[in-house]
Specification:
globular, 12 helices, alpha/beta, two-stranded antiparallel sheet, TIM Barrel, 13 strands, eleven-stranded mixed beta sheet, about 35% helix, 2 domains
Length: about 375
């Protein structure tokens, strides 16, 4: 049904007043899902218009979009979207920053440790001495990524395992906020065999020192770039320091669509939100800023790849990985992280006169306000 924005607002105001965890009967579920669809379709139309304005827009086999030199597109992303990566390796359960967009915002001190001397690979705990066994019995992924949370809190523990995976011919990339990076530890990572380092430049609010460390990383590590959730703050700060950033010689910038969950949604309460495929929840401005950045990069011929790391890209990533793992047709772990629809979070966009649905029609009998809707 093409529910009108007016009717959608009335129903979502009602749904928002319900007790948390109270389920909706089938017809009310239809109304809720029809509203999410209308918001998503209207936002998709806005995004398609922005994409049409990006000169030189490229596709990676239909799974994601980017602009810039092909050889600068991060190989870690190729592994993730086309190969058998992304294998996540977890070690550090601490971070030295508190970023409003972090998935673990407010719970940073409560993250469980992996365990002394241990690494979590594929959800299983390993000692470093177990790697020969792992590499002898399992098929090797095309790539692995060091995640969770800030590896430079104890970076000296990473050199040995990076060296071992390098010897096995496995592509490796790592994420960092960059604030603890030094020439010494960046050199050590390069010597160990790290292939790619991604700086969350937004975490440090585009600090000059972190920008400088990107340039240092390029001296020792084959690929270095930026991966940051796209927010208005980061967009503005990046453009203010664009020349200095590009002068570092970085290879790429992954513009991540800001992904909200129960931990960080309060930091963006009141923003206009869209739910992608009834799963990831994001402010509408996040991917719009990505496409504006890509247009500028293409028009100004920046010497880097700028990647649209959107919710759609993450959906494609998961489909690829499940298929490579032998999952059934259409298998995916992509889904809603709220355990339901946070109805109140959608009231701002439904009350925004500047955001319009594409097609509207009166609700059928049995679905209207005042009807007994079961």
């Amino acid at each position: 049904m093409n529910i009108s924005k007016h009717d959608a607002l009335q129903w979502f105001e009602f749904f928002a007043e319900l007790d948390e965890g109270e389920g909706l009967p089938p017809r009310q579920q239809e109304l809720a899902l029809a509203t999410l669809y209308q918001i998503e379709e209207a936002e998709n139309a806005r995004l398609e218009a922005l994409m049409a304005e990006v000169p030189g827009l490229k596709s990676l086999e239909g799974r994601t979009y980017y602009v810039g030199p092909d050889d600068k597109f991060p190989k870690g992303c190729r592994s993730c979207l086309l190969g058998t990566g992304l294998g996540a390796i977890r070690k550090t359960n601490k971070c030295n920053l508190q970023c409003p967009f972090c998935y673990d915002f407010g719970e940073m001190d409560g993250q469980p440790p992996v365990g002394e001397g241990m690494w979590e690979i594929g959800g299983t705990k390993f000692y470093e001495r177990d790697l020969d066994l792992l590499l002898s019995v399992d098929r090797h992924p095309t790539g692995v990524a060091y995640v969770y949370l800030e590896p430079f809190m104890e970076i000296e523990k990473y050199y040995g395992i990076i060296r071992r995976f390098h010897e096995a011919g496995i592509y490796q990339h790592m994420y960092t906020n960059g604030t603890l990076a030094t020439e010494e530890n960046l050199r050590a990572l390069g010597e160990a065999g790290l292939n790619e380092l991604r700086f969350n430049l937004g975490a440090a609010r585009v600090a000059d020192r972190v920008i400088d460390m990107i340039g240092v990383a390029k001296q020792y590590i084959p690929m270095a770039g930026i991966e940051t959730p796209m927010t208005p703050e980061f967009y503005d700060l990046f453009l203010q320091k664009k020349d200095r950033i590009l002068a570092t010689g970085l290879d790429f910038m992954n513009c991540a669509e800001l992904h909200l969950n129960p931990n960080n949604i309060e930091n963006y309460w009141g923003e206009p939100l869209v739910m992608c495929r009834q799963g990831y929840l994001s402010p509408i401005w996040s991917r719009e800023l990505t496409l504006k950045m890509m247009r500028r990069a293409s028009e100004e011929r920046w010497p880097i790849a700028v990647h649209d790391c959107s919710n759609r890209t993450k959906f494609a990533r998961d489909l690829n990985l499940r298929a490579k793992e032998g999952g059934w047709f259409g298998a995916s772990s992509y889904g809603n992280e709220f355990g339901g629809i946070p109805y109140a979070a959608f009231l701002p966009i439904l009350r925004d006169d500047g955001f319009r649905f594409l097609k509207e029609a009166p609700l059928p009998e049995g679905y209207r306000i005042g009807d007994v809707v079961l």
